[in-house]
Amino acid sequence: MHQLINPKIFPLARKASFMPLLALLMATFILSFAAILTKLAEFDLGPGATIFNRYWIAAVTFSLWESQKLVFPGKPEQECKSSGHLTINDVILFGIEPLMTFICVSLWAISLTQTSVANANLLHNMTPIFSTLGAWLLLKQQSI
Q: Structure pTM?
């Protein structure tokens, strides 16, 4: 049988399983329907209610996911060592990021009511390009 990765060169390749690839494919499949399902939900609810429902369902799901660790404790996790020193700038950036994400998703939901799913997704998926351009223009950051 032909192997794509030589286990002599990459010893961890023998331990690799099929599950990460399957999880990636499932996530891609599910996310590909996000815009279509959001557009369908907007026929009844509107963009604001659709995004609100999306966030509270995610919050409940992640809360249940985290609470299962209390019911079924596994191996003790290693404690994360932090420097213990946050600046006010860090706190401001940590506060602005969720707000900007909410604005981005809300505008995407509104754009689904005004244009096609393809155009709305094209603009929504260009967020990293706009973020990089904004960091370069406004924050004067450059790649190393």
A: 0.61
Q: Which of 134, 121, 140, 138 has its CA nearest to residue 38?
A: 121
User: What is the phi/psi pair of residue 54, to 5°?
Assistant: -65, -40
CA 85 from chain centre, in angstroms, equals 27
Element (H, E) at 28: helix 19-32
pLDDT tens figures, 121-133: 888 888 888 888 8
At residue 56, the pLDDT reads 92
CA–CA dist 126, 134 (Å, integer):
12
Per-residue exposure over 17-31, b if at least 16 CB sit within 10 Å of its own CB, e if not: eeeeeeeeeeeeeee
